[in-house]
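Design job #97: recover the sequence.
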């Protein structure tokens, strides 16, 4: 079995512990400048809230072994320390026909328990302080499993050209967070029903 993530209808399985309904969004909009520097593109889910993090750089996404080499540099642009940061990558053109979902991967900072937005930080947890950046990479067991999947299933290269990114959780460690693509937690029902789209993220050319 591939040690990655499969996005199913309204849920996220394997490594992450929280269900993400945003992963099953249909008809989301894509924005870009129409000038692709290379075949593989990255889009991030935007649910209408200003996120407490920004994507500083996306490196090596055009590499032949891109999931192994990928680096995401993320900066804390909030006024609070971040103790847990969990990101999901979705490959909408690489379908898992056996389970009815899609293949992808996860990248994270902090303990897996902090994937729950209401989980609190301990004294042993180290924060990403306001203004600081961290580098996220895919774990070895995940990218190795993904490469086995490519070989065993004869997946065409172009199936990985379209990559979508979801900010699963940004946990401040105090019972507050952003979750489900970037919605403030605790959730306020009055903020539901916002627009949903995917926005193109600039990537570094190889």
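Job complete. Output follows.
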């Amino acid at each position: 079995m591939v040690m990655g993530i499969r996005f199913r209808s309204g849920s996220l399985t394997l490594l992450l512990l929280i269900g993400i309904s945003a992963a099953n969004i249909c008809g989301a909009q894509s924005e870009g400048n129409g000038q692709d520097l290379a075949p593989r593109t990255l889009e991030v889910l935007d649910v209408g809230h200003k996120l407490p993090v920004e994507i500083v750089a996306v490196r090596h996404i055009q590499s032949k072994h891109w999931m192994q080499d990928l680096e995401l540099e993320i900066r804390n642009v909030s006024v609070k320390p971040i103790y847990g940061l969990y990101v999901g990558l979705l490959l909408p053109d690489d379908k898992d026909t056996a389970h009815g979902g899609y293949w992808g991967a996860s990248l994270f900072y902090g303990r897996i328990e902090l994937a729950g937005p209401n989980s609190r930080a301990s004294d042993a947890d180290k924060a990403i302080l306001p203004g600081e950046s961290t580098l996220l990479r895919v774990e070895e067991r995940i990218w190795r499993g993904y490469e086995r999947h490519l070989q065993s299933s004869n997946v065409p290269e172009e199936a990985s050209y379209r990559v979508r990114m979801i900010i699963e959780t940004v946990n401040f460690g105090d019972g507050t967070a952003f979750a489900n693509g970037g919605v403030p937690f605790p959730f306020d029902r009055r903020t539901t029903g916002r627009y949903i789209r995917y926005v193109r993220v600039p990537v570094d050319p190889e």
